[in-house]
Amino acid sequence: MxxxxxxxxxxxxxxxAIVGDDYGASEGDFAERFRRWGNLVPxxxxxRILADRLAGITSATVTVRRDVQTAALSTAWRLREMxxxxxxxxxxxxxxxxxxxxxxxxxxxGGAT
Length: 113
Description:
This protein is mainly beta. The protein has one domain: Thrombin, subunit H (Beta Barrel), CATH 2.40.10.270. The protein is built from two helices and six strands. Strands 1-2-3-6-5-4 form a six-stranded antiparallel beta barrel. The longest helix has 8 residues.
């Protein structure tokens, strides 16, 4: 179980800015929305994880405290570990124990986005 002392990484959460253009498009570049302290743990095993590594994809589990903003995260967002400036695509967002205390995110970097 995650504890406050495990939150050692500063994580920025980004979503696409909604910008209209002359052709009716409504998406723009990613923009930072908020930051949180979190725990980032690389995934190390499993057949799928090993296959992803061969394709240049790295998976990680990111845990942050649940609040109004983190509860709104979805797979349309991405996150950035701020010290290394590494960007991860969010693949899933869950409440791991259904207690509304933590948000657990499966994130990947590399490969096709």
